[in-house]
Amino acid sequence: xxxxxxxxxxxxxxxxxxxxxxxxxxxxxxxxxxxxxxxxxxxxxxxxxxxxxxxxxxxxxxxxxxxxxxxxxxxxxxxxxxxxxxxxxxxxxxxxxxxxxxxxxxxxxxxxxxxxxxxxxxxxxxxxxxxxxxxxxxxxxxxxxxxxxxxxxxxxxxxxxxxxxxxxxxxxxxxxxxxxxxxxxxxxxxxxxxxxxxxxxxxxxxxxxxxxxxxxxxxxxx
Length: 222
What we know:
single chain, mainly alpha
């Protein structure tokens, strides 16, 4: 396996950081564009243009979710190829679930190749909105903590970044996963503040990738 040049490593790190930044922007901006609030299938969706813009943002979100793993894979594979492949696979799965939610919302406001209204019944609209809510729970809510754990364990073991960063990832993943499991079984509502440690993990990792890059590991993996 050929070694990456320092220039290539810096470019890949910055590409991953840019993808992380794009995921934050698109995931936050898409929610209000759909109208109502997350996990409220009874809320009326926004207008056609707003929902279409939200859908485009979520398509970009899905692409950049995979992009983070694609950029990191060449940097991580020699330190733990199984973990690198696992992270890429789980990020791809997360993106696929997000796209299911996008496709669910599009029929609510539009038909392909026409500006005519979809004219779906209120019950159908509510059901599609509910499907989108479930994809939000399963993708970013359950699969994202899983892929963050895979990456955080690899970074903790190899010390490619300061250890407080994977520690944030492990703690944040456990908190978000636990909260969303409780939401799934109806024991609580979403508490956005509990996502703060996982958000801090991605910010810290992206900043490290953008400005310093990964350092030489203390424990090399075959």
